[in-house]
């Protein structure tokens, strides 16, 4: 109760349209007043945070995580407890994870399973995307029920992971049509799964078994082709499309061109694609190289992160996630003799805001893309931002023993994080308990997206 009234004093409050030095008064988790020299009454029971010389920005929303994900013969290391604690330390106050059913299995059961994992453990708020990994009338019915009864408004379709999660064009068409009917956003993992399977066989036959084979068997075209195909299919049914983990210049260009043609498509670069690159796959240390294995891969062209950041800054790309799906070195070693068996995934949930700040504001003087996150959802948290830190696996809160941003000096780091009006992190100390985060229902027909879909329909 003592934390229910909070005054953040003297920080520079960053909004979509402008920044202003002001106090922020929060009561019962809701911002009540923003202005100079606020003196809320009574003073007793008021928690005061001094934000002098700091930025006060909306809590981050990581649009893409995989906590405790059973995947590729293993389970990702960050669970909903360590992962969301790390998120808070990095200034993120909400994550959106993925419930992913096996082919032939129930989407609703997958949703319930993921929710039962998350609810007792989450330290920040969360929502769930659901994956469509096969197609039938039952899937269609379940999508409807998830949208109408469970607060799901986005579904991810995989164009890769052949024989595991991959769907074909006919299934994509059906799933996109259904999303459109229900007012959901279709998401795609855009890579040509057939070409990856063939390319991987070819690499292994040539004796290339190391992590570099992972990138060599799926060059940029493989990502760009699938991105173009998904956009074409989505446009045919006027369904809004969200391309997750945009990793290459080629795929980003495809999205940018489609947006210029008026298509309703959004691209999500991730902390990894903005903060590091695929040259790491050629590192002589196998463990180092394997730690960067994820799909689509990071690109060896070192100008990729800057290119993606420029597109993010000018709205060609729209939001940032992390695809946080951490595996430690022992788990990665499942693929020591065959790169196709290295569990795919990297860290980022704690690093994302600082990495974007470093690469997007400090390096090229662009505005942090906070407003995008605020626009697609309510602002759930507040972060006091300023300080510097060198990213390291030795000091991070993510559960794995490697950090793909190791050694990066960041000049924007959360000093305090506020969630629902409570200071949950301050000066390196946490004040959260497992299960304190809440599931956030997301409504169908989100206006930011569907306003454009309706306009296009009328035209
Ligand atoms: O390598 C990745 N991206 N792992 C997580 C699963 C996915 O495709 O998002
Ligand atoms: Zn994916
Ligand atoms: Zn993912």
Automatic annotation (TrEMBL):
GO biological-process terms attached to the record: pyrimidine nucleobase catabolic process
CDD domains hit by this protein: D-HYD (cd01314)
NCBIfam families tied to this protein: D-hydantoinase
UniProt PTM comment: Carbamylation allows a single lysine to coordinate two divalent metal cations.
Record field: transmembrane: none
Lineage: Eukaryota, Metazoa, Chordata, Craniata, Vertebrata
Name this protein carries in UniProt: Dihydropyrimidinase
Entries under InterPro entries matching the protein: Amidohydro-rel, Hydantoinase/dihydroPyrase, Metal-dep_hydrolase_composite, Metal_Hydrolase, Metallo-dep_Hydrolases_sf
Species per Swiss-Prot/TrEMBL record: Eudyptula minor (Little blue penguin)
Family, similarity comment: Belongs to the metallo-dependent hydrolases superfamily. Hydantoinase/dihydropyrimidinase family.
């Amino acid at each position: 109760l003592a934390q229910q009234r909070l005054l953040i004093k003297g920080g520079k409050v960053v909004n979509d349209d402008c920044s202003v030095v002001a106090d922020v008064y929060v009561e019962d988790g809701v911002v009540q007043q923003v202005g100079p020299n606020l003196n809320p009454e009574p003073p007793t029971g008021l928690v005061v945070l001094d934000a002098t010389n700091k930025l006060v920005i909306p809590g981050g929303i990581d649009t893409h995580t995989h906590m405790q994900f059973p995947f590729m013969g293993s389970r990702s290391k960050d669970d909903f407890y360590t992962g969301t604690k790390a998120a808070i330390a990095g200034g993120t106050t909400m994550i959106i994870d993925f419930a992913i059913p096996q082919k032939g299995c129930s989407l609703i059961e997958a949703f319930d399973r993921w929710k039962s994992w998350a609810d007792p453990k989450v330290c920040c708020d969360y929502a769930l995307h659901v994956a469509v990994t096969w197609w039938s009338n039952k899937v269609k019915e379940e999508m409807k029920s998830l949208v109408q009864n469970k607060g799901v408004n986005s579904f991810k379709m995989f164009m890769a992971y052949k024989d595991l999660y991959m769907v074909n064009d006919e299934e994509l068409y059906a799933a996109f049509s259904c999303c459109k009917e229900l007012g959901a956003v279709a998401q795609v993992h855009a890579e040509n799964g057939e070409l990856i399977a063939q390319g991987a066989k070819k690499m292994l036959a040539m004796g290339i078994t190391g992590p570099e084979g992972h990138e060599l068997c799926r060059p940029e075209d493989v990502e760009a082709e699938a991105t173009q195909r998904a956009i074409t299919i989505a446009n045919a049914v006027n369904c809004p499309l969200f391309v997750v983990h945009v990793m290459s210049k080629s795929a980003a260009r495809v999205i940018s061109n489609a947006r210029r043609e008026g298509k309703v498509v959004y691209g999500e670069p991730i902390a990894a694609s903005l903060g590091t690159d695929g040259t790491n796959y050629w590192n002589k240390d196998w463990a180092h190289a394997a730690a960067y294995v994820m799909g689509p891969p990071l690109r060896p062209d070192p100008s990729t992160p800057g290119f993606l950041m420029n597109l993010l800054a000018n709205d060609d790309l729209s939001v940032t996630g992390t695809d946080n799906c951490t595996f430690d070195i022992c788990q990665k070693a499942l693929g020591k003799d065959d790169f196709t068996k290295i569990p795919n995934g990297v860290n980022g949930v704690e690093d994302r805001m600082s990495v974007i700040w470093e690469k997007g504001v400090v390096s090229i003087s662009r505005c942090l893309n906070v407003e995008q996150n605020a626009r697609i959802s309510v602002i759930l948290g507040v972060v006091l931002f300023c300080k510097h830190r060198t990213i390291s696996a030795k000091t991070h809160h993510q559960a794995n023993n490697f950090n793909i941003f190791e050694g990066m000096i960041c000049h924007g780091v959360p000093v305090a994080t506020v969630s629902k009006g409570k200071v949950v992190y301050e000066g390196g100390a946490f004040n959260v308990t497992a299960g304190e985060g809440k599931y956030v229902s997301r409504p169908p027909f989100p206006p930011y997206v569907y306003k454009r879909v309706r306009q296009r329909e009328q035209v």
